[in-house]
Design brief:
elongated, Rossmann fold, 23% strand, Alpha-Beta Plaits, 14 strands, 9-stranded mixed β-sheet
Length: 416
């Protein structure tokens, strides 16, 4: 521990010798180190050249600048310093004035060195406590900033109140997982200036992660242009499925606007595909003692990633698994089909969520019901939907399957 630096400000010629003599033991042991000034202005000059000074002992009545004026200047320029006034003018007016101007304590002359030693010890103890609290606050602010890069504001507050949530290890719990991917981004990277790509990707990821945080989600990873998010962990939330689906719709809205904005700048950006799935996974902080990786492991996570990829085949932008829909009373959307994902023996019923105002939803539901029943009229029904809206890729996908001789609602991901 380094010596505590104390500046003594007094115009009496014998003060330096007295202080040096009385505190010689502490100086020899490296506990204290004194420097001296004869007035307030000289004290400010010393402080300007020595950032290591911890406290000030100052007289009041001095030439050039008195001790009370010095107190005013110190409160503006050196807020961390603690100042003790040592003066023969110990009347209540001077004491109150000194304390109101920021003095930590007041000692009257002639100096009783036992009292001065106790006052210095008390002042330095308070200073160390103050600095400790300041360090803790700075660490907390850094932790808040770091956590805010991964978690929504509400989750950050939960974690700061219960840091054990992020202790190394994991637990099996039910949550909802969201994966995004930006279509045809790699070819764009290969054909564009690096500065353009950096600015574009940063703006895009700022937007997507901002939407995730706004819906109470946690960013597990950013891999290239892809965002992997989790809802319902580390902080519990009973509506994690609804949060994730609302987030997916909001990301889709943002990405559509962003894509249009990029088009005005001559950049042909692909659509954002999103997969959402719910279920039990092992969730926690992995990576050992030296690396922070809050993530999740389990088949449910892999399926969320596969559903994102399934959009590429069926033509949708958002694909939500049945497990998520089961957790959402009043879910609004239309059935994509029963998707047989790679490596799976059983298909998973999947949906495209809607905001509730899509005009074609009712007509699509009727066409899909015919398809599911094996009714030959399904082809005509989907053809009618495409005739009314050529920009409905999901209806076009089913019509294409029917025209190629495929039937039913079970869709292998190798289907085209």
């Amino acid at each position: 521990m380094s010596a505590m630096r104390i500046l003594v400000v007094d115009d009496e010629p014998d003060v330096e010798a007295l202080i040096t003599q009385k505190f010689r033991r502490q100086v020899r042991k490296g506990e204290m180190d004194f420097c001296f000034a004869s007035d307030g202005q000289q004290a400010l000059d010393v402080l300007d050249g020595d950032a290591e000074i911890d406290m000030v002992l100052s007289d009041i009545n001095m030439p050039n600048m008195d001790g009370l004026t010095l107190l005013d200047r110190l409160s503006d320029l050196h807020v961390d310093l603690k100042t003790v006034i040592v003066s023969a003018y110990g009347d209540m007016t001077n004491i109150r004035t000194a304390m109101n101007r920021g003095a930590f304590d007041f000692i009257t002359k002639p100096i009783e060195f036992e009292d001065l030693e106790k006052t210095i010890a008390k002042t330095l103890l308070h200073l160390n406590q103050f600095r400790g609290l300041k360090t803790e606050k700075a660490q907390a602010e850094r932790a808040h900033t770091t956590l805010s890069r991964y978690f929504s504001p509400s989750v950050v507050e939960t974690l700061l109140q219960d840091p054990d949530c992020l202790s190394p290890g994991g637990e099996r719990r039910i949550a909802t997982f969201l994966f995004t991917d930006l279509q045809n981004f790699t070819p764009l990277v290969e054909s564009s200036n690096s500065d353009v790509i950096v600015d574009l990707l940063n703006a895009y990821l700022d937007g997507v992660t901002g939407v995730v945080f706004a819906h109470g989600g946690t960013v597990m990873k950013i891999v290239g242009d892809s965002v992997h998010a989790i809802f319902g962990a580390p902080a519990d939330h009973p509506d994690h499925a609804a949060q994730a689906v609302a987030c997916a719709l909001a990301i889709d809205e943002f990405a559509t606007r962003f894509r249009a904005e990029m088009k005005t700048k001559g950049i042909d950006l692909g659509a954002t595909r999103i997969g959402v799935n719910s279920g039990a996974a092992v969730i926690g902080n992995f990576g050992g003692a030296n690396f922070f990786d809050y993530t999740a492991y389990g088949d449910v996570v892999n399926i969320a990633a596969r559903l994102e990829q399934a959009n590429k085949i069926v033509g949708s932008r958002i694909c939500v698994g049945q497990n998520t829909v089961d957790l959402m009373p009043g879910f609004k959307g239309r059935v994509i089909g029963n998707l047989l994902l790679k490596g799976k023996s059983a298909s998973l019923r999947c949906y495209e969520p809607l905001t509730g105002d899509e005009k074609a939803a009712a007509g699509y539901d009727k066409a899909f019901a015919l398809l599911e029943a094996g009714d030959a009229k399904a082809k005509q029904a989907f053809a009618a939907l495409v005739g009314r809206d050529e920009e409905d890729p999901l209806a076009m996908f089913h019509l294409g399957r029917l025209l190629s001789g495929k039937a039913g609602t079970e869709i292998e991901m190798s289907d085209s």
